[in-house]
């Protein structure tokens, strides 16, 4: 199968579109997103994905003439952090999830995490 007929993994198109918007560094219309994608997607498919990403709170949209222009609400590290928070939200086994996450960190990442937590604990006006 070629082009449009091939199925993509769940979220792959969303990731591609987010990457296009991050690289752009400015709001893009649906047509601009469509022409910058490597995949050959129908305009309506791009509209659907942009709408879905907006409803998830990942994109902001503003009227631009008769269309909308879309831009990410956060940079890529911010979006990754948001996904991590979403995984944790509402989990009854948060302690176990965090313990496994920390246990799987490299020594370098663990050291960085300790440093960041130490800085957070020493910020004025915050409970540590």
Topology (elements, then pairings):
Layout: H1 12-24, E1 28-29, H2 30-36, H3 43-55, E2 59-64, E3 67-72, H4 76-88, H5 94-103, H6 107-121
Antiparallel strand pairs: 1-3, 2-3
Helix pairs in contact: 2-3
What's the short story on this structure?
The chain is 55% helix and 11% strand.
Instruction: Report the structural category.
Output: mainly alpha
Largest sheet: 3 strands, antiparallel
Question: CATH fold name of the largest domain, please?
Answer: Arc Repressor Mutant, subunit A
Provide the CATH top-level class of the largest domain. Answer: Mainly Alpha
CATH architecture of the largest domain: Orthogonal Bundle
Low-confidence spans: pLDDT under 50, at least 5 residues? 1-5
What is the number of helical segments per DSSP (H or I, 4+ residues)? 6
Our estimate of the beta-strand percent is 5-15%
Spatial arrangement of strands, main beta sheet: 1-3-2
What are the secondary-structure elements, in order, as H or E?
Answer: HEHHEEHHH
Helix content: 55-70%
Pfam families: Penicillinase_R
Protein name: BlaI/MecI/CopY family transcriptional regulator
Family: Belongs to the BlaI transcriptional regulatory family.
InterPro entries: BlaI_family, WH-like_DNA-bd_sf, WH_DNA-bd_sf
